[in-house]
Amino acid sequence: MRILVVEDESTLNKTLLDGLSECGFQTDTSESYKDAEYYIGIRNYDLVLCDWMLEDGDGTDLIEVVKRKSPRTPVVILSAKDDKQSEIAALKAGADDYIKKPFNFDVLVARLEARLRFGGTSVIRIDELIIDPDEEKIIYKEKEIELKGKPFEVLTHLARHSDQIVSKEQLLDAIWEEPELVTPNVIEVAINQIRQKMDKPLGISTIETVRRRGYRFCFPKKA
């Protein structure tokens, strides 16, 4: 799972990066609205953790940027504002959660994990296909499919972003911890395994190749 942290206070930014990385999250960080907007444009995130008051913009404005690209991606706002009106305003702006500073890091992680269960990693149901990321399980017409590891993660990521074309580079960034150390052909291998272990035996098609652009989740194919 990949998280984008947007925090303009350098020390807190590093603390969040180190702490979330130790908890097993793949984490990108930004100290400005402009850089965060750039990252959101080129990568897919499972969650965005954003400070409200940034030097070059309003963190709540990023909510619309995130949701426009990926409506299911949760956005959690961090804020030094501890009044009820501010919390309500952030939630009405589209935030999925609101965490007041200062915060306990363990509580923060627990709330992010809870939000991910309701958002990016919740069970995906499309017709008779069920993908359960928490259990690493796929069921189609009550039959469990044996697909694990990176192919499962690739399938899940594409299913979460079924309205988008996802490039090889975006898949590498989202799934591999050190994408710079692997070659793009690992994506082709994963896609091939999905087709051989799942699509072919079941007589369905879940992923289409979009020439020179990437891949798109296509189940069920529209008439």
Automatic annotation (TrEMBL):
InterPro entries registered for this protein in UniProt: CheY-like_superfamily, OmpR/PhoB-type_DNA-bd, Sig_transdc_resp-reg_receiver, WalR-like, WH-like_DNA-bd_sf
Protein known as: Homeostatic response regulator transcription factor HsrA
Superkingdom, natural source: Bacteria
Domain Response regulatory: 2-116
TM ranges: none
Pfam families according to UniProt: Response_reg, Trans_reg_C
Residue spans binding DNA: 121-219
Modified residues (4-aspartylphosphate): D51
Domain OmpR/PhoB-type: start-end pairs: 121-219
Entry keyword set: DNA-binding, Phosphoprotein, Transcription, Transcription regulation, Two-component regulatory system
